[in-house]
Amino acid sequence: MQNEISNFKLHNPVNIVFGKDRIKELPRLIPAGSKVLITYGGGSVKRFGTLDRVKEALHSFDIGEFSGIEANPTFETCSQAVDLIKEEGYDFILAVGGGSVIDGTKFIAAAAAYDGNPKDIFAAGIGQGVRIKSALPFGTILTLPATSSEMNATSVITFKEEQAKISFSSRHVYPQFSILEPELTYTLPAKQLANGVSDAFTHVIENYLTYPVGGMVQDQFAEGLLKTFIEIGPDVIDENNHDYNLRANFMWAVSISLNGWLSVGVPGDWSTHALGHEITVLNGTDHARTLTAILPATMHVRRKEKHDKLVQYAERVYGVIEGTEEEKVDAAIQKTVEFFKKINMPTNLTEVNVDESDIDFLVNQLVKHDKINISEHGNQTAEVHREIYEVALTNNFLK
Ligand code: NZQ
Ligand code: ZN
Fold first, then answer.
1. Architecture of domain 189-392
2. Is there an atom of ligand 1 within 6 Å of 151 CB?
């Protein structure tokens, strides 16, 4: 167990272009003369006029389009874009969308520059887990703040055939730039807004709710972000509230929740994400909703391992100063659940259509994908996964 801040390197090169009306700056951000492939999802960017603004800005560029990158982007769909790039010779990609389009584009960029079998970019039972040496350059225009994919080097891809959701990371898939226009969030429905707040909240928690190593900067950044989400979350999920600063704070808080600043030098957990991904594979539940359904049970089952941080979280994030340490831990879990409920997120597995009979499948999937001995202590085994899933069915430990 580490007891001090560990050595780290951090080189996050993403050029963030934040604010109003920034899409028009695309010609300055993409190298002149590039042949650009615009990637997007199921059509929201067409419906709400973002694609037209992009095309207008890029009128002097040679451009093509690839649409249909689905939520939880699949290897199968993204591979079609790789073929298109090889056939038509694009040299820059522009992802316009949420985490799924950006993640899909990261894989497309990596696979287009890779000579071997693209599955080898992934480990965990899919391929060899090779370290890629290059990727096609790409930029992003973020339309859904949730994942921080716009400011990190990770991509999560779904493999239909293998029934798996697996990530890869490489410094070569940092976006060259990300345009963050808070006004692009005005068309998001309440459910996606709540997903965004909850996914980012859980990213902070995975980096923070471990054990203390004296990372004052990481801890207080994390606590500031958690307090921000708790404060603005209920207003953010009001799809009719188009207050600019509200959405600007939301967008920026999300981007820095998983861009490396909170994770360097300190332990991380990521077990709630691992357990959640298998639920998405099982029944297609939105990523963020799997997290809020699992996290309360993780806090409860792992309360000994996470004791000191749970107390710190109760005191500093929720201002719980009365009571014993055990009571503070109880309050921390209770208040987390209350927050998720306030923003209309599920807080147990029954609410995301998982029942007792699914647990064998979920645990077996984790074993198959090498997700054993995970968490900040490296001791969250398959038995512990099972216990968390079982507790999470109803969370009847809650008052
Ligand atoms: O496909 P379109 O028509 O564009 O509609 C999308 C999609 O249906 C819609 N949407 C996006 N922007 C919109 C909009 N609708 C109206 N107005 C807008 N401005 O929203 C739907 C969901 O989009 P999606 O991109 O799937 O959501 P999200 O950003 O939550 O991404 C989820 C994916 O990211 C992965 C998840 O596992 C999941 O696959 N993650 C990626 C991470 C990373 N790269 O670091 C970390 C995360 O933990 C997460 O695992
Ligand atoms: Zn997440």
1. Up-down Bundle (1.20)
2. no
* Residue 148 CA to ligand 2 centre (angstroms): 9
Start and end residues for every CATH 1.20.1090.10 domain found in the chain: 189-392
The structure tokens listed for 74 are 């699949």
Question: What residues does CATH 3.40.50.1970 cover in the chain?
Answer: 15-184
Query: How far away, in angstroms, is 144 Cα from ligand 1 center?
Result: 6
* CATH number of the domain located at residue range(s) 15-184 in this protein: 3.40.50.1970
CA distance 264 to 250: 23
pTM of this structure = 0.97
What is the per-residue pLDDT across 108-143, written as a single tens digit (0 to 9) for each?
999 999 998 999 999 877 788 889 999 999 999 999
Beta strands at 154-159 and 138-142: parallel, antiparallel or unpaired:
unpaired
In this structure, what are the phi and psi dihedrals at residue 390, rounded to the nearest 5 degrees?
-65, -45
Give the residue from 162, 205, 165, 204 showing the smallest Cα distance to 73: 165
Longest pairwise C-alpha distance within the chain: 66
